[in-house]
Structure formats: C-alpha cells, structure tokens
Amino acid sequence: MQYFLRKNAKGAGGSTKLSEMTAFGDFIEKMELIDSSVLFWERNSLWFKPDGSARSRIDRLKGVIRKLISTCQTAFVPGRQILDGVVVVNELIDLAKRRRDKALLLKVDFEKAYDSVNWKYLNFVLRKMKFPTKWMEWMKACIFTSSMSILVNGSPTEDFVVGKGLRQGDPLSPFLFLLAAEGLTRLTHKAVEIGTFKGFKVSEELKYDILQFADDTILIGEGSWDNLWSIKTILRSFEMVSGLKVNFFKSKLYGLNMEVFLAKDLHLLS
C-alpha cells in the first residue's frame, strides 16, 4: 500500500488497476492483524444470563461487542453514546482553527450501506474474530443462505439466491454492520501505522484518524495531497472486499486552513 500511495501522489492520471489490486492484497493481509485473543470470552456469560436462562442472539452479541469494535465507533455499542463522536469532531475543528493547523475531513456516505454488505466478507470477518461454531451455523441459516423472489404484475418470480445485504428492521443487523465496518477502521489504523496516512495530531500522545457513527464515517487527517490519495486507497480497498461503495455525490470534503483548490478536489477521489 505504501508503494501505491507514493505512486498515485505524483498525479491524478495513469492506470490504477494494478495499484488497486495491490491495495486489495494489503487489506487482506491487514485483516490478519485482528486480535482474536479478546474473543475467547467465557462461554457461560455468552450463552446464559445470570439467572440461568438462555440469552437471545442479540444479548449474546451485545455481551462481547465492546471487545470487538474500536473506540472510534460510538453507535449501538453498550456504554457508548453517539453524541460522543459529534463532540469530538466539534472539538477537533475548534482546535484546528485556534492553532491554524491544516486539516482534512471527509464525511463518507456509503451507497445503500445495509443492502451492499458482501456476505463472503462478513463471513470472513466473523471467522477471523473467532466466533463460535454454533454462532456461525446460525448466521449461515439466517443470513448467508437467504433467497427471495420478486413480484412482477402481481405474480412472483422464481426464487434466486441473494449474495449481499442485511435485512432492514432486523435488530441483529446494526451489530453485524458494525462488525463489517470494523474492517475500515482497522485498515485506516494500519495506514497510519505504516505512515501512509497521517491523522490529526492533538498532542504527541493523542491523534485522530477516523470516527464512526454506525454507517456514517468521518476520516480526519493532516491537510495534504498525500493524505487525499491515501483516503482514496483506503476507501477503494475497503469497497473491493466489503461491497460498501462510497457515494461521492453525497460525501463531503472539508478543508481547514488549506488552499482552496485542494479543498474542492473531492471529485479526484471518485
């Protein structure tokens, strides 16, 4: 990925096919960094309530979701408030204005987020996170083997197999989406770790690079061309494996204390 970013930072032109495949490979390698050790939870707390009664699927997932999801995600996680992320963004913008720091913020909008999650990708994430065999069997029966038909002039068509999407209204879907979106968080953190993406520095010990509120994501970093191309690489890599495509018409790019031409160049990401 580091080679890809340096290559594309030189200009907007040129072929990106090979570069995108390189980024895709780096994403798959990055998934190996998921620390599965936190998921060897106590089976009693996962499957049963304190009174001995069986937990529902949602209760079981809620019991471990905080161990799986990074702290930058503030929605649907017990003990976290969605407004926490809003407060952090406001404080970061205010700090950048006071210190006259150059900063880049991209508010990401995914096209039909819940309907676009690739099942093979979600299944891969669940397995990498060491979910129990019983849970995987439930997911296979409830999600990964679904089929549907379409009404045409009042008559149903033949059933066909569905390969992506989470059911709207299913109380389990928000939590499964958080697990899918965690891949973007880990990919962004990895880009920061290897130095291809630079987050916004609050202090020597504290930096921010991504904030998430369910399917809403804000990428935050230093205001530079390199960071702009790093964002493109991250989002494109994530799209290729997860199916979550960015809607650049609804996404917004904001620049603080930056050149006007750079702040207006969101179209270069598409």
Question: What this model shows, in words?
Answer:
- By secondary structure, the chain is an alpha+beta fold.
- The protein has a domain at 71-131 and 166-269: Alpha-Beta Plaits (2-Layer Sandwich).
- Helices cover 46% and strands 13% of the residues.
- The protein contains 12 helices and 10 strands.
- The chain has helices at residues 2-8, 17-31, 43-47, 57-62, 65-68, 82-99, 113-116, 119-128, 133-144, 173-193, 225-242, 260-263; strands at 103-108, 147-148, 151-152, 155-156, 160-161, 200-201, 207-208, 210-213, 216-222, 252-256.
- The strands form 4 sheets. It has a 4-stranded antiparallel sheet, sandwiched between helices.
- The longest helix has 21 residues, at 173-193.
- It is globular and about 60 Å long.
- Pfam families: RVT_1.
- Keywords: Nucleotidyltransferase, RNA-directed DNA polymerase, Transferase.
- Residues 1-266 form the Reverse transcriptase domain.
- It comes from Trifolium medium.
- GO terms for molecular function: RNA-directed DNA polymerase activity.
Question: Which terms would index this structure?
Answer:
270 residues; alpha+beta; Alpha-Beta Plaits; four-stranded antiparallel sheet; two-stranded antiparallel ribbon; 10 strands; 13% strand; disordered N terminus
